[in-house]
Specification:
Length: 358
């Protein structure tokens, strides 16, 4: 969604390119060589107007005094001057981690702001950086070479931005996947679509994780009705080197017709010889049986399923119940049942992570 907004900005936008090197605006002696390195590294990369000229001019003009440097001894990736009459609370950050991009929205920022007040700094994780302004809101889109969390500090004049490895922020990393989405509706029955049920359950799981204090970084493949390739879903988990990958689905008979077949089934990766995928699947199954009172259909080999087979961490693909079973279909549409399933899966994740530690 946010990407579309950025892409639609056709006005003369400043394209900022900051590549390679170390932040050196606090180190006057190294400044020149760093800039030469930047220029060298940027040769051959054409992403519109380079901001290098702006960086250099600005750095010379606003070189911090030794005193100021002492106050800010930490070297940050980017430093942005906070516009006058912009409250830092009104600056918003959106981490589109599926696309390795971070969007910074700053109200009251005109098109030419960064000509006058360039961003300073550099980070070798930055692949690209674009800037545009629409409806008096400045949009900075930073493309990174992996998933990072943005952290920032600020003083009266500047905001200091850093891109941090999720591992440095969280003790555990989990990817939760709401099966299907967009034009891929999954299975369906009586007008109910699998993609809607899986999304409802995952949205409720997010509420549990948001209140959790185990320092678990949870990344979702979708929290709306977006369309996503299987490779992208498992790709997020693999890229993050997640501790666990959980994919939530609803089952159906092969024919798609109403049937008495019902119950909960969890797939795991047999080729995970450590047994961790199976253990995770068993935890999910048991938690669901306890939580929603469904019938057990056991844990089963899921290696023929792409996202199970290609996950490089313990994975569980949960089939909560059957959309083709009248009773389960009815239950799975209720908020209460969805909430109990969500809570059960949340507990299964926490349990599996803490077991891992023991
Ligand atoms: Zn499915």
């Amino acid at each position: 969604m946010e990407r579309k907004i950025i892409n639609s900005i056709t006005m003369a936008s400043v394209v900022l390119t900051i590549l390679c090197g170390v932040v050196l605006y606090l180190c006057p002696n190294l400044h020149t060589s760093a800039m030469e390195q930047q220029v060298a590294m940027t040769n051959g990369v054409s992403m519109g107007e380079s901001v290098l000229g702006l960086i250099r001019a600005n750095t010379e003009m606003t070189q911090q005094s030794p005193l100021e440097a002492e106050e800010h001894p930490v070297m940050h990736h980017l430093r942005m001057q906070i516009p006058d009459n912009v409250n830092i609370q009104h600056i918003s950050f959106i981490n589109n981690y599926l696309y390795n991009t971070i969007l910074i929205k700053v109200p009251g920022l005109g098109n030419t702001y960064f000509y006058d007040y360039p961003m300073i700094g550099s980070c070798n994780h930055i692949v690209d950086m674009t800037y545009g302004s629409a409806n008096n809101v400045g949009l900075i889109e930073i493309t990174l070479d992996n998933v990072y969390e943005l952290t920032y500090t600020y003083d009266d004049k500047y905001m200091y931005i850093d891109f941090v490895n999720p591992r440095d922020v969280y003790d555990y990393i989990v990817v939760v996947d709401a099966g299907h989405g967009g034009i891929d509706v999954g299975c369906s029955h009586s007008g109910v679509l699998e993609k809607q049920l899986t999304l409802s359950i995952v949205q409720k799981m997010k509420e549990y994780f948001d209140q959790d204090n185990h320092r678990i970084g949870v990344y979702y493949t979708r929290l709306d009705d977006s369309d996503m390739a299987l490779a992208q879903r498992v790709g997020l988990a693999n890229q993050l080197e997640a501790d666990l990958f959980l994919s939530v689905h609803i089952n159906s008979t092969a024919s798609g017709r109403t049937s008495s077949i019902h119950g909960t089934e969890v797939m795991y990766r047999v080729s995970d010889t450590t047994g961790q995928s199976k253990a995770f699947a068993q935890n999910c199954l048991q938690a669901l049986l306890d939580g929603i009172g469904s019938k057990s259909r056991g844990v089963v080999a899921g290696d023929e399923i792409k996202i199970v087979r290609t996950a490089e961490m313990p994975v569980a693909l949960v089939e909560v119940g059957y959309i083709t079973n009248k009773e389960e279909l009815q239950l799975m549409q209720t908020e209460e049942y969805q909430d109990r399933a969500a809570e059960a899966l949340y507990h299964a994740v926490v349990q599996t992570l803490t077991e891992k530690e023991e």
